[in-house]
Amino acid sequence: MEKAKKEVLLFYCVEAEDLARKVAAQSDFIKLQSINWRSFDDGFPNLFINNAQDIRGSHVAFLASFSSPAVIFEQLSVIIALPRLFAASFTLVLPFFPTGSFERMEDEGDVATAFTMARILSNIPISRGGPTSLVTYDIHALQERFYFGDHVLPCFETGIPLLKQRLHHFPDAEKIVIAFPDDGAWKRFHKQLDHFPMVVCTKVREGDKRIVRLKEGNPAGFHVVIVDDLVQSGGTLVECQKALKAHGAAKVSAYVTHAVFPKTFMGAIYSQR
Q: What is the pLDDT of residue 246?
């Protein structure tokens, strides 16, 4: 017997509106909902969840974007409010976990803000259906799953299937090599890409500079695709591209799930094109 599909009420933040509309267009069972994102004169949020009475007994999802500290508080306010409206279940979709790369303490006094964010999200109220499902893509370190409390069930997804689909449609698909800029990226993704030849790079310090060097593999004559979970400044990608070209790569492309790219660093990327 075919399992009946459940209707989902999808709420979203301002930045995610276009994506939310694209998601809703994929299924008649996803119903877009709206929130009035207003502010008081002092700048603090003045929020209103429209048609809140429809949430009772419904499956609810919220598409978030923690793109800057300035927008996190207002979204957290809604995230905490939604399951308290007697939702049958609550799913938080946070495509990019922004503090994920700050998961370690190297010196006493370092603050692991990945843990801080996980603790905050762990306080989302339980809905009628149980703990909140948190969906995020290519989080920086898989062990961050254990930073969350029992009120949140983290579901770690990946964009790699989309990359593989794209690579197979390249005209030079038979000449593609996957490159990882460091051992961390290799550990994170190599099992999902093990049918491609691979190159692994490593970062070494020379004085005040961090240089990328080839550790293993042969890129000579191939279209090399660098794969990583995120890019901030783009410096590692640029240095990796230099190392691969120096070892004979015919062409170098790059894939990252999360391209943060602060504006001040974009020139370094374009200058290498």
A: 95
